[in-house]
Design brief:
The protein is of the alpha+beta class. The protein is built from six helices and seven strands. The longest helix has 25 residues, at 172-196. The N and C termini lie far apart (74 Å).
Length: 197
C-alpha cells in the first residue's frame, strides 16, 4: 500500500522548476477552485524591517525585495503604515496586501513587514527578537536618543536576525552572542592595524 503524501511533489514544468525557467504554473485541476492550491514554501519571508520615531520619520530601514524600489515609495509606505498604526493598541495590521506586525516603545515604532500569506507568529517572533536584542544592546533604553547613538549596533542586530529577507535567528540571546563576537572581532582588527602602523 502506498502512503499518500501530504505535500505533492512538483512535476517537471510545475512549481519551483517552472518558476526557474519562467514557465507558467499549470492550471488547477477540474473541479478545484483557482488559487486553492498550496503555494510553494519559501525562506524569503520578510519584505522589510523599519523603525520610525514618534513623528513617523525613518530612523532605520531595510527592504529585502523590490516591492518599493525607490526611496520615495519606501518613505510613502512607511508614512501610511505609521498613520494607520500609531494610535492603535493592536500589534498586527494588514495594509496594501501585506501583513505588518509592530510594537512601540517610548518614542519608537518597530515594524516587520511580510506578505499577506505570511504567518503572523513568524513575523512576531522576528519583531520580538529585534526588540529584545535592541533592549540589550541599548542597555534597556529602547528610545530614539539611545538608538541614534548606537546605530551601528542596531544594524548589526538586524543583520543577525534577517539576511536578504531570510530569517536567520529568532532567539535574542543567540543574536546578542553573535553581535558581541562581531564587535570583539572588529576591535581586534582595529588593534592589529593600529599596532602595524
Amino acid at each position: 500500500m502506498q502512503r499518500p503524501e501530504a505535500w505533492p511533489r512538483p512535476h517537471p514544468g510545475e512549481g519551483a522548476a517552472a518558476a526557474q525557467i519562467g514557465a507558467p504554473a499549470p492550471p488547477a485541476p477540474a473541479g478545484e477552485p483557482a488559487g486553492s492550491r498550496l503555494q510553494e514554501p519559501s525562506l524569503y519571508t520578510i519584505k522589510a524591517v523599519f523603525i520610525l520615531d514618534s513623528d513617523g520619520r525613518r530612523l532605520l530601514a531595510k527592504y529585502y525585495d523590490d516591492t518599493f524600489p525607490s526611496m520615495k515609495e519606501q518613505m510613502a509606505f512607511e508614512k501610511n503604515v505609521f498613520n494607520k498604526t500609531n494610535r492603535t493598541d493592536s500589534e498586527i495590521a494588514f495594509f496594501g496586501g501585506m501583513t505588518i506586525v509592530y510594537k512601540s516603545s517610548i518614542d519608537l515604532f518597530l515594524y516587520v513587514v511580510g506578505s499577506s500569506q505570511e504567518n503572523e507568529l513568524m513575523l512576531m517572533s522576528v519583531l520580538t527578537c529585534l526588540f529584545e536584542s535592541l533592549n540589550h544592546v541599548l542597555r534597556k533604553n529602547v528610545e530614539k536618543r539611545w538608538l541614534m547613538d548606537n546605530m551601528d549596533g542596531a544594524f548589526l542586530v538586524l543583520d543577525e536576525i534577517v539576511d536578504g529577507g531570510v530569517i536567520l535567528e529568532s532567539d535574542p540571546q543567540q543574536v546578542i552572542q553573535k553581535v558581541n563576537f562581531r564587535v570583539l572581532q572588529s576591535a581586534k582588527e582595529q588593534i592589529k592595524w593600529s599596532l602595524l602602523k
